[in-house]
Amino acid sequence: MVQTRSQRAKLAGDGDGPATSGAEPPGNARATKPAPAERIPQIPTDMALLLAVLIFISVRTFLASRGDASAGAMTVALASRGATVGFEALAAARCASFLVIAHRLYLLVVVRPPFELKANYLATTRFPLRPVKLWGLRRLVTFTVQTWTLQGIYFALAAAAAVAGARGLEAPPWLPLKATRYLFEVAWAVSHLVTSVTTYVLVPAACEKFDGDVRDLPLLQADQLVLHNVNCILMHVDTLLSGQYLAYDHAGAALLYACYYVSFAWTRARYVAGGVPYFFLDYSLPRALAFKLHLGLAGVVVLFFYLGVFVTTQLGEIAVPARCLVHVLIVGAIVRFRPPPEYRARAKAD
């Protein structure tokens, strides 16, 4: 089995830095850990150029998109002709969704105790192998929490739009309808990405490595289940009620969001934290591998966006009962509140 760098370091020493030899005193200069500023790798020029090219492509695609291709079919309340409820009910549902997200973010930022984020670095990383403690606003570092924040902004603006529509008013000057529409599209794609990766990648991998009863796995506790599943459910509820759909020519917005998060993670790693939250954002890896991981991330985000385009545009063509059934089937396919069946059987046997 190939060992990660953290595993090799733990076998050699304390897992948090280079081991000291028994022939050398701990205070020996050669055994002293280098200063953090010396250990944090700089952002390579070619990686920065790759990110710049992706940003250019996303902005160019975004600006060249037919901006009114989908917005023209939307009312001031951000609902299409396929909406299944009135503006008042839509406003109430969006307000409720915003309150759910605001409450969850409040718990994460204010109530929950600090926790250590340990990136599963690959063996060839040049980042220091030390966990990063997150608390308060620092919890916004993770992609999942930033996705929740994005959804919170969307639901706040969309609720205001629905209230304006219910009162027969024009959109107020401070309410950017088109930007809110883009927020819906990006939030739909990334929330499904978060839930799908958690269900089909993170949870099975964690169950495989977990020694105890898998029902005690941290990813399967109430906080984490809400964080990685409810975001997707909220987007399906809004899609069903409002009849909104993703426009294929708005994919640049999703790619731009991915580029933003990479830029955020790199900047924070280089100048603030000394590490990235996920191994696939590690710019210190061998160049070919780093290019593949970052291009893969961009491709996966765009893929989920186009899957959203296909699903939401097809839903507008079918009857409401069938539409509800499709939403339930999609949510049931990617949302999980229990361990995978094979690990549930193992837990019962134990």
UniProtKB/TrEMBL annotation:
The keyword Lipoprotein is annotated on this UniProt entry: no
Statement: the UniProt record of this protein carries the keyword Metal-binding: no
Region Disordered, residue ranges: 1-35
Record keywords: Membrane, Transmembrane, Transmembrane helix
Chain segments annotated as transmembrane: 47-65, 140-166, 186-207, 293-312, 318-337
Protein name: TLC domain-containing protein
Organism: Aureococcus anophagefferens (Harmful bloom alga)
